[in-house]
């Protein structure tokens, strides 16, 4: 009984006392702030514990047959609907390519509308025209044609400068004035050329001059051949004329 009374008194005495709980406050030293984007790496021991305790989940694809693992074999791509307006743009795109003898492929940087208007005004009257189109329109227009290799250069925003005249040096001068466009390559009479090859072609003489030189070379050989064939006949005719003249002079002297 005495033990029970002592325990009850102790419990009543403890209930009168306020419980004391230790408190701790984390204070940052000076003005140091945590770097959220590049946090401080963990301690070596802590990093080892975290790596050891990181859960490893089983791969759900292990043990499955190949025809179930590769989902692309069963997935069917939905064909996109092509509108009439897109078909019209693709037709105009291909027509401008077919009419041009020289095509420059340009990468288009951020360009304002008034800059494009100035470029069109600069090209007016020189049989040159800027052609703009998305990747989809270019693929619809140039796929399965002689211009299909150009699609490899059509990445991002791409523009084309089509010229009906074969004047590479003139086209390169215009591209230098177009600061918001970067020359990637070009097509010269159906052949895809790089930027360096276009610059090399601009140093070549005019095709009309080369044709005139070729014609002169061909005609010179034929004229030399005709002269060599008729040389003996002409020489024989001259000698006969001289012989006739000499005989005529001798006959005149004998009569006198």
From TrEMBL:
It comes from the Eukaryota. The keyword ATP-binding does not apply. InterPro entries: Ribosomal_uL10, Ribosomal_uL10-like_sf, Ribosomal_uL10_bac_type. Pfam families: Ribosomal_L10. Keywords: Ribonucleoprotein, Ribosomal protein. GO terms for cellular component: ribonucleoprotein complex; ribosome. Belongs to the universal ribosomal protein uL10 family. Component of the mitochondrial ribosome large subunit (39S) which comprises a 16S rRNA and about 50 distinct proteins. This is Large ribosomal subunit protein uL10m.
């Amino acid at each position: 009984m005495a033990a029970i009374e002592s325990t009850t008194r102790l419990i009543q005495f403890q209930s009168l006392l306020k419980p004391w709980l230790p408190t701790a406050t984390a204070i940052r030293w000076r003005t140091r702030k945590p770097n959220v984007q590049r946090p401080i790496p963990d301690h070596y021991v802590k990093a080892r514990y975290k790596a050891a305790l990181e859960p490893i989940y089983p791969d759900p694809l292990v043990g499955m047959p190949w025809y179930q693992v590769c989902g692309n074999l069963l997935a069917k791509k939905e064909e996109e609907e092509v509108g009439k307006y897109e078909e019209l743009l693709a037709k105009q795109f291909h027509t401008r390519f077919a009419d041009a003898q020289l095509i420059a492929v340009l990468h288009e940087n951020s360009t304002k509308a008034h800059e494009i208007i100035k470029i069109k005004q600069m090209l007016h009257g020189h049989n040159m025209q800027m052609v703009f189109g998305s990747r989809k329109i270019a693929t619809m227009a140039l796929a399965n044609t002689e211009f299909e290799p150009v699609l490899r250069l059509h990445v991002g925003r791409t523009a084309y400068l089509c010229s009906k005249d074969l004047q590479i040096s003139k086209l390169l001068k215009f591209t230098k004035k177009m600061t918001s466009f970067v020359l990637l390559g070009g097509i010269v009479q159906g052949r895809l050329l790089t930027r360096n090859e276009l610059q090399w072609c601009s140093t070549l003489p005019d095709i009309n001059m080369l044709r005139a030189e070729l014609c002169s070379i061909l005609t010179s050989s034929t004229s030399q051949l005709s002269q060599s064939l008729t040389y003996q006949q002409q020489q024989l005719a001259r000698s006969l004329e001289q012989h006739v003249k000499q005989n005529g002079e001798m006959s005149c002297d004998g009569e006198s």
